[in-house]
Amino acid sequence: MKTILGKKMGMTQIFTEHGTVVPVTVVEAGPMTVTQIKTVETDGYNAVQFGYEDAKPQRVNKPMTGHFDKNEIAPKKHLAEFRPEEGETYEIGQQITVADFEAGKKLDVTGTSKGKGTQGNIKRHGHHRGPMSHGSKHKRLAGALAAGTYPSRVFKGNAGPGRMGRETVTVQNVELVKVIEEQNLMLIKGAVPGNKGGIVRIQYAVKGQNK
């Protein structure tokens, strides 16, 4: 499975031993704690639930407080569950840290993209603008949406103005350049989705993994 939750800290650059500049995203990842083990007998499927980042006890409701107290685990802000691979075993309270990841491997990083509010066709879908000359008043408008006589309606799924961003996005096959275990940091080549401070899920790449 090799999965961990982290917080995006921002971007910087590092230099390789050959002097090449590599842009990297800094992610403070883990440590995660195993908070629940689900089985076919108890829950109908096999999964492992993890908690990330400590929460103040007074900000956790009673059902979740009981959930954590049952296994004597400190309350967590973020919970996520993952399907373990065949042969993997976990125990309640087990820690998952950046030390479990190897530099040079390929990663899939999932996060929530930046929200851009309501946008028009040009920014949202990359449409072309209208003519700028002769007093045109339709420079950035959507234009005709459907024929008037038939079908006399707008088909569903037309690319139109609307909310842009704030969607779950996964970037695939990005390189894990460096792991700094002492500070729980992962340096990932290139950009990853989301704002600074946003939560991202990091796992070994499903496709294109280096052997």
TrEMBL record:
Single GO MF descriptor: rRNA binding
Gene3D superfamilies, sorted: 3.30.160.810, Translation factors (2.40.30.10)
Keywords: Ribonucleoprotein, Ribosomal protein, RNA-binding, rRNA-binding
Any GO CC annotation of this UniProt entry: cytosolic large ribosomal subunit
Biological process terms in GO annotation: translation
Pfam short name (any one): Ribosomal_L3
Comp. bias regions, Polar residues: 110-121
Region feature Disordered, mapped onto this chain: 108-136
InterPro entries named among the record's database cross-references: Ribosomal_uL3 (IPR000597), Ribosomal_uL3_bac/org-type (IPR019927), Ribosomal_uL3_CS (IPR019926), Transl_B-barrel_sf (IPR009000)
Tagged with keyword RNA-binding: yes
Keyword Ribonucleoprotein: yes
Ranges of biased composition (kind: Basic residues): 122-136
Function per UniProt: One of the primary rRNA binding proteins, it binds directly near the 3'-end of the 23S rRNA, where it nucleates assembly of the 50S subunit.
Family of the protein in this entry: Belongs to the universal ribosomal protein uL3 family.
HAMAP family the record matches: Ribosomal_uL3_B (MF_01325_B)
Assembly description: Part of the 50S ribosomal subunit. Forms a cluster with proteins L14 and L19.
Name this polypeptide is given: Large ribosomal subunit protein uL3
